[in-house]
Amino acid sequence: MPRRPRRVVCLPGTARRLVAEADGELVGVAGIVDAPQDWEIGAGFTPAPAARQLERLYLRPDQHGTGLAAAMFADVDDGRALYLWLIDGNARAQRFYRRLGFVDLDERHLAGSSWGGTPMHRMVRPAGG
C-alpha cells in the first residue's frame, strides 16, 4: 500500500482541497469546486454536465505510479457527479480518469494563455462513480 501523505488545507463553502506532502515537500494537490466556473460561463459551456468540477489533481512527476493520485482523489471525492477538463494528449491521465469512471465528452476548448492555448476536452463521471 502506497504511503498517503496529505492534509486538508481548506474547505471553504463546498470546495474540497487537499495537498500531499512527503518529507516536508509538496508532492500533490487536489481540489473539487462547485460548477460551472466563471470562465466556463463566459465561454458558453453551460449548463455544466455536473454540479461539481475536479479543478485540479496534480502530482510531482516522481509520484506518478505510486497510488497517491488515487488516494488523493478518494479523499477529496464525495461521490457526487463530477466533471473535469483534460489537456488533449495526456494519455496517462485519461487512462487514470477512465478507471475512476469518467467518460470523454465531445466538448473541446483551448486552455487559457497560462496553459499556452493547449486544446482540452471535458470528461464526466456520474454520481457514485
TrEMBL record:
Keywords: Transferase. It comes from the Bacteria. PROSITE patterns: GNAT. The keyword Heme does not apply. The keyword Transport does not apply. GO terms for molecular function: acyltransferase activity, transferring groups other than amino-acyl groups. SUPFAM superfamilies: Acyl-CoA N-acyltransferases (Nat). Coiled coil: none annotated. Residues 1-125 form the N-acetyltransferase domain. This is GNAT family N-acetyltransferase. It comes from Tessaracoccus defluvii.
